[in-house]
Amino acid sequence: MSWLARLAALVLLALAPMVHAAEAAAVASPDGKIRVSIDVDGEGHVRYSVARGTAALITPSWLGFLFTDAPKLHRNLSVTGSEARSFDETWTQPWGERTQVRNHFNELRVHIKETKPLARGFDMVFRVFDDGVGFRYEFADQPNLHTLSIAEELTQFNLAQDGTAWWVPAFEWNREEYIYNTTPIREIATAQTPLTVKLADGTHIAFHEAALVDYAGMNIARVQGTALKAVLTPSARGPKVVRAAPFTTPWRTLQISPDAAGLAMSNLILNLNEPNKLGDVSWVHPRKYVGIWWGMHLDSQSWASGVKHGATTANAFKTIDFAAANGFKGVLIEGWNLGWDGDWFADGKDFSFTQAYPDFDLPKIAAYAKLKGVHLIGHHETSANIAHYEDQMDAAFDLYAKLGIDAIKTGYVSDAGGMQARGADGKTMFEWHEGQVSSVHHLKVVTEAAKRHISIDAHEPIKDTGLRRTYPNWVSREGARGMEYNAWGAPPNPPEHESVLVFTRMLGGPMDFTPGVLSLTGKHGQQIQSTEAKQLALYVVLYSPIQMAADLPENYVKYPRSFQFIKDVPTDWSDTRVLNGEVGDYVTIARKDRAGDNWYLGAVGDEQARTSTIKLDFLDPGRSYTAEIYRDGDGADWKTNPHAVAYETRKVTSADSLTLALAPGGGQAIRFVAGPRK
Amino acid sequence: MSWLARLAALVLLALAPMVHAAEAAAVASPDGKIRVSIDVDGEGHVRYSVARGTAALITPSWLGFLFTDAPKLHRNLSVTGSEARSFDETWTQPWGERTQVRNHFNELRVHIKETKPLARGFDMVFRVFDDGVGFRYEFADQPNLHTLSIAEELTQFNLAQDGTAWWVPAFEWNREEYIYNTTPIREIATAQTPLTVKLADGTHIAFHEAALVDYAGMNIARVQGTALKAVLTPSARGPKVVRAAPFTTPWRTLQISPDAAGLAMSNLILNLNEPNKLGDVSWVHPRKYVGIWWGMHLDSQSWASGVKHGATTANAFKTIDFAAANGFKGVLIEGWNLGWDGDWFADGKDFSFTQAYPDFDLPKIAAYAKLKGVHLIGHHETSANIAHYEDQMDAAFDLYAKLGIDAIKTGYVSDAGGMQARGADGKTMFEWHEGQVSSVHHLKVVTEAAKRHISIDAHEPIKDTGLRRTYPNWVSREGARGMEYNAWGAPPNPPEHESVLVFTRMLGGPMDFTPGVLSLTGKHGQQIQSTEAKQLALYVVLYSPIQMAADLPENYVKYPRSFQFIKDVPTDWSDTRVLNGEVGDYVTIARKDRAGDNWYLGAVGDEQARTSTIKLDFLDPGRSYTAEIYRDGDGADWKTNPHAVAYETRKVTSADSLTLALAPGGGQAIRFVAGPRK
């Protein structure tokens, strides 16, 4: 068949709904630009559509569910009513990219009921912001819906236009760590979220979810053409989700912006989460940290005991000394506890979360850290055996609390094929990292930790859906390819990696990427695809309230001038501005220190040399700043001359512009030191 | 990142395995052209690769399983040994496209064992034919593998080249009835099988499976690029498959041919199925049939009772008379049994499979049919409520057997979200049409029917994987968009539809498409996108041992000359030759009547006018034939002039060629009447 005939058929299909369905309800964003409308087609499918201005973004898309134990909820639906409301408040982040966050939306609640005998009902709630849309399903308890055993969520996302997509596959090896694909939208297969697309008309949309609580993580599969749909993460139990009514699903989110920068400026995910449930969280501390970690990835140290054991009392003392001497408030030490000597990667059942190796004197080290004004960051690698971990969790957290350890890095590396959970029958079930069982586990860890005033930084985690607003002790997590892939990844992270991350993974929330490897060298001498200046820029570009200086202490000594920026840069901000960016090409971000008047700027690019000019109008007007510039030097190139860094100082004001020249694989970092107020 | 850099990265990835893995075993096809090789990579993944000649088709692809209750079987594997054998036999089909089938392959059995403590083992068995490859997993009972609870099969199909794909989506609305997508391979999302691709070098590969017994149907998802993988059909139970060892999976099949015609000539699927287990099957009868069916799709009759009720004794008698008068041996009557008046589409729980409507005197009709030399074809629409159907199945089959009804059309239309099965706890479970529970159900129906010498023609079935070889009473099924979509489909089947079906769906086996609607008109006058001549060609092109003349009897009276071909054409063949074809464009097939010396030819095209010249060298050499030609007449076009048919008679021999001119939406049918032997 000819492509022309195919196109004609598609056009006919696209027109068909307009003929048959009348709009049942609609809602627009506060600025009037984004509009969501609801209709019911001839077969009783309730559908939503999204437009921005005159451009259709999402054509009529179905909603509904398959169940394992009941007829699907999909056709034969009617809209029985709807209500609208507006909401506008500004709330304060205890820590974050900005102090004040405005939460401003128009909401439409649509009441939906089956026209068939079961007469099941639910509400669809749409919140439309200037920067996108969130919607969710809400179920009241009712005679024919006490418990929902969800086989699949039938939410569609039918894109109205073709374009480019940045995505990583779902359901591959049970984690989130992949190099991003850059493809036409029509080449998306099944993707994890955030999934970011740039439509033909330039509109950017990032698909994700907010407030993933006691539910399966949503992935997005392409059906055909540019038609996408939700695919929930499976469970060994059968239903992907089991929930008793009343309950609400997580928010399905579309961050929408005319440019890439707008995506990274969006607060939509946080705004759709519930406010802080922990009360006073002054015990949660943004900070930088160093640790005994990179050596394991270089294979010069080991988690396991023996001659290369990294977590020794002597090494700990040295690392604490280094931290204290350079102003780092945190020290992470991995491999301190019993259990690393067997086949830990397989099932983690040998891990003790309270017993240290004999060469690691935990109480003594904790006391020494305290003496030096440094906080140990505890470490719990579970190998994804969550049943085993939960058995010891109370004792493990109590131990850390007793020793004054106020943050824990958890880990869920698994080679067994999933999270090992305990089923109702006591037997082991293998569950996905993004499944409902995992979502329950992670929140249990976070809330149990909160009781002891401990913060959590989860690696190989469930994805970030903004729950840090509700549980501010969930300070960071991994959930993408981080620095360790530069040590041993085949291939290592490409130069564009972080310019993709900002507009994909980072839309979910902070990432503990562990930047700052100034030596630019991985295992067996593998070259990191970055210039030295870019390593500095990452501290501003990749937001996390806890940031590691990941390199070995002895390497930092070799690069004292660059190291100064790492010592200077804060990790908590009163304001953030994304100055420019194109997904996978480059991005420039400026942030203001929450503890002072200084601004910081980071710019990273990709494998090409890139130049951009930015206005400094984010600076306080009329004030003078000393810009301490760390830029790629002459001839810098990640491949041939990565350590060429130029250091400059310049006086600037908000009326100035700056031209940033990034080398291939390069970046630039700037500290704007505020002069006295006029 | 630039496309060039991306390409370079991919090339590096593709080269990596060659560096690290040594071939552990290999096997070639009897003609030496197709070669499968096995290796183990550095992490202990066992991989297979497929090449044809010097062209790589499948690059190293992983094998393995995820389980819901045990660690995955994927990494840390070793090849502990292998054995090869050759096999060559010719077996006889009781009915089919050809009488004799040669089953000629070289087999490689690879013994694989985990190097980790569980030490689980399995065999991979590869059978390499001149027309493709089949492979399966075989599990012996063993201490750490008594029962397999399979969460996913990790079989990959990494295509070495880009190209074009013809596919329908999986997991959409729980059936198989879609218009085919024609896309680049990189635009496959998740597809049902058969999935057919044409690689850049012209090689055609159809991915499917053979002998789907007590296992979940396999779908094929694209991971990224041209990397594909198996995705099993889910189950409400949790594991997609539960099997006690010893057991073998279905065969994963790759039919491989330098041209499209070769795919449609392949016997690989049948050859990988086990021989006939039913013994004497002389009670299975290929035949043509008419029925009370098309009127329901036109909405001039109804399944439900009332004034439009189609299944009345009077209508049955008329239809039997029409069949007898025109030489049709079968009569199908739908809507005869109680249960059609409620919301049968929802759950089918009101269906009786033994009680007729009062206006349908089943015993009297059966007796009248017998008197007229006609066989009733029974009808069991289940609405996919398989628990309800199985409860009545014995009684229903006994009733039909008693009345001499030797074939049943079953139906599994469902609007409930799945096959309604009964779980171990007695509660309803919603299962997929292609899942393990469905595979068990269908085989139960077929084997129970066989006990009564009844044949089965399943609609909305599980896919065909060649089980007709083992159970020859499984005569046909639907499993794709059939004629009824031309009645009410929006849109109806496009002109290319059947030229796609031959190289996709039909590779699985016979399809009860129900051709022959000479009126070319659906519900409310919807035009069928076919010429009249094409309707005749479908009887040869779309193989099924039972073929319906689907139009209303009163319509056949209007087209007596074309109707003659439908009366003449047989449905059982001693030989089949696919003379030419391009997927989705056109195909020409010649078949020889199993009951005589005549040959029949069918050619169908797409929306374009097409001309091809074919050699008649399939005819017996030196023998004279009278070719009765039914071709698109001058100016024929499905849109503007569909009833223009030209009828010609010509004397031909095997030395002749014929030029076939197909109109847009057209086709051609020829009956070659053999003259006396020399």
TrEMBL record, chains A, B:
For this protein, the record's InterPro entries field holds:
Aldolase_TIM, GH, GH-type_carb-bd, GH97_C, GH97_catalytic, GH97_N, Glycosyl_hydrolase_97
Which terms in the Gene Ontology molecular function aspect does this entry carry?
carbohydrate binding; hydrolase activity
Name the chain's protein: Glycoside hydrolase family 97 protein
Show where the Glycosyl-hydrolase 97 catalytic domain sits. Answer: 293-480
Q: Which organism is it from?
A: Glacieibacterium arshaanense
Record carries keyword Hydrolase: yes
Instruction: Give the Glycosyl-hydrolase 97 C-terminal oligomerisation domain ranges.
Output: 572-672
**Where do the Glycosyl-hydrolase 97 N-terminal domain residues begin and end?**
27-275
Which superkingdom? Answer: Bacteria
Q: Which UniProt keywords apply?
A: Hydrolase, Signal
Question: Pfam families, per this entry?
Answer: GH97_C, GH97_N, Glyco_hydro_97
Which N-terminal stretch is annotated as signal sequence? Answer: 1-21
- The coiled-coil regions, if any, are none
Entries under SUPFAM superfamilies matching the protein:
(Trans)glycosidases (SSF51445)
> Membrane-crossing residues?
none
